[in-house]
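Annex B. Sample input.
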Amino acid sequence: MKPLIIIGAGGQARETAQWVEDVNQTLQEPWALLGFADDHAANEHMNILGNVDEVCANVDENVYFICAIGNSAVRQNLVERMESIRPACKFATIIHPSAVVAGSAKIGSGCLVAPHTVISTDVRLDRHVLINYGSTIGHDSLIHDYASIMPGTSVSGQVTVEALAELGAGSVILPGLTVHEGAVIGAGAVVTTPIPAHSIAVGVPAKVIKTRQENGRKADA
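Annex B, continued. Sample output.
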């Protein structure tokens, strides 16, 4: 069995633990979930091994990690901290067995692909991408590092979602468009034009309503 620690202890982490259990039913060499690492959690119902830095520094070199954090900027911060502590840090990729993944798709390390998702022909997911429940990624789309695709999102063909962008639940991105770095698309929005970097866009069709600071925090409106 391959040892695995989940980074985080919130809802996404608990969901990921279930996905790991489901994935294990299909693997010849299943994951052995050792527990969770989190800087703030004190949940008596979860096996919290310690804070992220301590766990990363002290566990065996054969242990894999998966960063189960929904927020893109927080996920990036944690991964970069871990890699500064342990340059050879190993990250798992978890793809739920109910996901439909094209043979030509490329999925990077640290990605989480949830139940009932579709990853179509010649899609590329870079590192630490989250594709949540029931989302569809159309042919030839590129999803860059730390992007987060929330439940029920439809990304059409030949779309580019740049690093740290977040697509809200039920949003739709029309073919060939780019959602630029760090942009946020509101739940249920329909994107019909490219979205600038670090913007927040909502509505049908989606309109930019404000910008964000580059670290992911909202700027003053």
